[in-house]
């Protein structure tokens, strides 16, 4: 693939007003794939981007495509905001998704595998095995893998459950002449070929190193061994054809919100249903048309939903190569996560936060202060209470451990655990149970709303009164993703913020009626209203001499009311600069509608995740951070928070960061009115500006300055 190949968006428009949400999402995945196809990037990082493309599509089909397929049955003629009926949209999704997946497969086969071999790692398929390698693999298969496999027969009356996302091997079998009658009856009717399905084990590595040349490490896959030596599973039968496949099923289930005290049981029922819901996509290699046809028929999948390849279905298996010695050259330069410039590394933060707010920008700065903040509170005898929300916190979480310890130490710990966090439901159920056993008060979400706000409050007894310390964030309380996702959070003891956070917890944990908050905005109460009001304020204050300005950074922009308000702002001469990582339904650059709107997207080594909103406000500028994107689900169907940046130093730092993103001319794409995302590149006279690298160098310089030894000069004086 050439670097100059155009990465086109087939996202057609209706009435020149809105891009389609689902097609826009595919274009985001195409921008990720663009990074995978950049020859100048380290090889293992390119494989990582290919893996992200695969996992992104898995989730997309489980949720978005599944919901459209249901709409196709329930309301087939209803058009969405972009003008598509469900059937029309599914066709467009299939066309564009196949283009992207085929491009991914081409990149893997023509670029990644040859480059791996050049770097000393060669993928050996069974037909390429040496005699030594074949004997080695046969022994490995017989000793370590054959006992793990369970072949399942199929026939016209029975097709086994193919679990969601798991890989399977299918075998087309022909009975040998001397087959005994029992097996013949079991597998075959009237002399027809039999078909069996075997699940690929999940508890073992799928990458297998082979004996051979030490200078060139050779490997094969468990999938290959099972397909090659699977005959051992079927004594008396000959394997005529075989095929590797997996199935993507509908995961867009709604839990029974009226389940009451049985809500966890209702959620667990949803998790079970995901494994056997209707199939929306079949991924397979192209080794057997007969097996593919048989599986399609039994899963009721049409050709538009079949994605074939002649190499790996999931390139992520190759990431295990990174565990080998001497592969650092194949990865990005290691970037440190620097200590906060404003918080002490050893002492508690109480005294610092009494003096001023502190901004934390991960992953450039370490996430340790958030963990330390909670851990210090758990051990501090003067801390009375801890209240927080948890959406996604990861496995083996030190935050959960600190909360459990706090409860065991006699603190009143209240945690709102969102059990409906998609694909993290099972883990969150475990956390909720563990926290309750430790003595914490656990709130299992809000009926009909997801709690997506990220907020923590620590209440501490000081002198004759209590003091409240607050942490508000754009991202989850997850130390692992905080090393990969770019997010901002604020530590503060500001009384106005603390008052609003107190009100927030009263609303979401009890029976409190909605109460006004003075400086925080809460969805679905007034967050959308306040955003629309601030856009209207820019329109009102804007003039040719002093045009208004809005700069917004978020993951996705899909809300019709907000987009229309931004169009109105553009018509009024307001300059609108949008940094949208993923979905963007707004069409920029259309004369008379959006000529003053610019949209860019940044895809780099870190996942851009901050939500930052800047309003010029006729010279009285305001900046807000939020957990919410400007999407229908965030503004209308979730509990979210937006909070202002009040301290001038932090305000200036965030504005500088926003400008860095907007001015980036590397790892950035700009959206045109025709739907194409064009890669930004520095022209001859321009300095290359890669936003994430600029930010990293900035925080590195701050850290070096902070750690520089203090030099004292010894002065001579006449005695």
What is the number of helices? 18
Percent helix range? 25-40%
Q: Which radius of gyration do the C-alpha atoms yield? A: 28 Å
Largest sheet: 10 strands, mixed
Q: What gross morphology would you assign?
A: globular
Low-confidence stretches: 1-10, 187-191
Distance between the termini: 78 Å
Say how many strands there are: 27
SSE class = alpha/beta
Q: What is the overall pLDDT average?
A: 89
Beta-strand content estimate: 15-25%
Summary?
The chain is α/β, with parallel strands linked by helices and 719 residues long. It has 18 helices and 27 strands.
Annotation keywords:
719 residues, alpha/beta, 8-stranded mixed beta sheet, 27 strands, disordered N terminus
Structural account:
The chain is of the alpha/beta class and 719 residues long. It has 18 helices and 27 strands. Strands 14, 18, 19, 20, 21, 23, 24, 25, 26 and 27 form a ten-stranded mixed β-sheet that branches. Strands 10, 11, 12, 13, 15, 16, 17 and 22 form an eight-stranded mixed β-sheet that branches. The longest helix is centred in the first third of the chain and has 33 residues, at 86-118. The radius of gyration is 28 Å and the shape is globular. Mean pLDDT is 89; it is low at 1-10 and 187-191.
